[in-house]
Protein 1
Amino acid sequence: MKYWLLKTEPNVWSWQDNYKSKLHTAEWDGVRNYQARNNLKKMKKNDLCFFYHTGDEKKIIGTCKVVKEYFLDKSDKDKKFVSVMIKNEKKFLQPVTLNSIKQNPFFKDFILLKQSRLSVLNVDIKYWKKICKMSNIYQN
C-alpha cells in the first residue's frame, strides 16, 4: 500500500462535496500536470490519500481511499490525463494545517514543503503516521 496527498480548492471541490457524492465516492479529475498525472497512474486500489484543502484553508481535512485505479479523464479532450475514483474514509476531528507542518522540524523533508505546487503527492509512511497522530483521533 502507498500513501498520497490530493490537493483541491475547496470552493471547486471540497471534502463535503465528495462526501455528498453517491456512496461518498467521486472521480478525482481535472489534473493537468504531468508529474501529478504520473502519480495518479501509480495509485492502486485501496491506497490511502490525505484530502487537502488549498487556497485560504491550507489544511489536511481527512483521509480517502482509492477505489478505482486510473482511467482517462473525460474532461481532457486531448486524452493525455487520467482520473482515479476516491472514497471519503475518515474526517479529522482536528485538521492538520500547513502552518503546523511547516513549524515542525520533523517535516523538513516532507514533499508537501518541497513541491508545494504539485497537486498529487506521494507521502512517505513516516509522514502519514505523524499527520494522523497530529489530527488526534479521526472520525467518519
Note: The longest helix spans residues 125-134.
Protein 2
Amino acid sequence: MLSAMAVTAADPSGLFGILKESMATGRTLLDPKADPTSNELIKAVVTEFESGEGRQAVRSQVQSRLRVAVTDMKGKSMAALREVSALLDSKAPGDAAGFKSWLHHIAENAAEATSEGGFMGFGGTQVSDAEKATLAELSSALGIRA
C-alpha cells in the first residue's frame, strides 16, 4: 500500500482520481493470488491481507507511519519502503526481487489508474512527471531497476 500511496501523494488528482488509484491498488494487491508464478512470500502477504485481521494490521501500521501531513506522505512512504527493501534482502533474499517488483507494479498501476491534469477525466497525461519521478525514486528505494 505504501508504494501506491507514494505515487498518489506525488500528484494527487482529486477525489475521483484518488478513488480510481485506490481501486487499482486493491486489485493489484490481490492479483498474485491467481498468478501461479507469484513467489510464496507474495502469496503469504496476499492471504494475510485478505483476512479482516490482516487488513486491520496493515491499516494500523500505515496510519502509525503516516501520521503526518499529506505533503510528507511521499517521504514517509519512501523511508518505510527502504526499510522493507533492507528487511527483504536480509530475511528473504530468494523472494526479495519478486516482492520488490510486485511493490513497484502496485505503484505503477496506481499511477496509470487516472489521467493527471485533465478536466473531468478528459485530456491530461496518463502518468504525470511527478508520478514518473516518484516511480523512479521508488525503484531506487527498493534497489531495483524500473
Note: The helical segments are 2-10, 14-30, 40-50, 52-65, 73-91, 93-112, 129-142.
Protein 3
Amino acid sequence: MDDLKFLADGMLGKLTRWLRMLGHDVVYVGSMNDNELILKAKKENRILLTRDVQLYQRAIAKGAEAFLLESPNQITNLAQAAGRFKFPLEINPEISRCPKCNTKIRSILKTEATIKVPEKTLVHYDDFWQCPNCQQVYWRGAHWKKIEQTLIEAQKTLEDKG
C-alpha cells in the first residue's frame, strides 16, 4: 500500500481526507492549472485523481497515470478508488495519515492528550492519535459511527458493482 501515491485535483477535497485516513499519501491541489497538475503527477510519481474528463484525457495522453472518478457521490468515489487500486475500506490508525495535512499520525498517551482535547472527551475515550506536523489530535468519538457507516456503504457499493 505504501507505493500508492495520489494527487487529487480541486474537486476531490473530501475524497482526499478519506484516502488519507485509509493510509494513503495524497497531495491535494486546490488551484493549479491542468498542465501543472500533470507535470506534478509525473514528477512525483503520483496517480492523478480527477472528475474532469478533459484533464484525465490530457494526463493519459501525456503519459501520466490518472484515474477518472465519474460520480459526485463520495461513497461511490471511495468504492471506485478501492476497487481500482485494491485497498481495503478499513481505517487502521497504525498507517492512517492526518486528513488535514497528509502526515502519518502517531498514537499518544491519554496524558499527552489532556491539554489538547475537551475534558469530557478524556472521560469517555482512552485511545488518542496525533499528527506530529499540525498537532491535530484524533480519537474514535461519537463521529466514528458515521465514519464506519460510510465505509460499510462504500464496501457494499463496491461489492454490488463486482
Note: Residues 6 and 47 are 5 Å apart (CA to CA).
